[in-house]
Amino acid sequence: MNFPQVRLRRLRRTEPLRRMVRETRLEIANLIYPLFVTHGKGVTQAIGAMPRIFRFSVDKLPEEVGEIADLGIPAVLLFGLPEAKDEAGSGAYEPKGVVQEAVRVIKKTRPELVVIVDVCLCEYTSHGHCGVVVNGEIDNDKTLEFLARTAVSLAGAGADIVAPSAMMDGMVAAIRTKLDESGYQRVPIMSYAAKYASAFYGPFREAAECAPHFGDRRSYQMDSANVREALREVEQDIQEGADIIMVKPALPYLDVLSKVRDTFNYPLAAYNVSGEYSMVNAAAENGWIDEKGVVLEIITAIKRAGADMIITYHAKEVARWLTIL
Ligand code: PBG
User: Model pTM?
Assistant: First the structure.
């Protein structure tokens, strides 16, 4: 059968019809909201390149996470800005580190919020790299010990999920082993498995003050031209014990998301990163695009490509729009 018997427009004629045949449905339950936690007291600091995103000190978190939880957003992803940085990124695994304190406060105020913690050293090292530096190179194996220590410390503070983002080989296995030895068998690992060296992280590096002071991250994050390698990264992390895998960034890597979805039966997260957020906001503020339309189209596309969970700075707006739809 073909035209004129077949007319695909028949099921597009009215919104109720379109709604019935819609293949992808966004839910608030799909959203994860990133939060930047900074040292000090009484701090709510705007981030220049990311409209409506702030750095909060720990005492300011209850109000913010109250709003997030009231919107029905199930989870937050925490990043920390420590008071001091050093070569070994020790602020990442300090018992009273800024993210450790944030986890305690959030779990106390809104225990139902799933608290995911980024496990990386770049926000805590004086040189801004994701691992320890030996002779000018990022030392893979030495970094593992520090990442594992950070994960255990954050699990101890009450984190529900640890999310290693350093792109070191063997990081998932190192973290799984240390968590299990320390009694945190129940804590899942969400691995930034296919994380690309991306210019789209620019605004985040301002927000988290974690731009590398020399060189770049290309010796550990993936080359944006590769997709087969992403499948190997994911396969490796699954073998090492990852519970959830992630592709990052999202929009320029929908093909990667889709391939990972087709190849592995694991829960899949996508990170709609800072640069993706800032571009949309810049255009919307100029009146060049319709923010709501563009954002919902982007988030739907990320889900359609295969993501179960979407980490996005748009989460609060999306949750509001989905509530009144
Ligand atoms: C830390 C980390 C980065 C992001 C998430 N975790 C920065 C980087 O790798 O340089 C970027 C997130 C974003 O751009 O929103 N390693």
Answer: 0.97
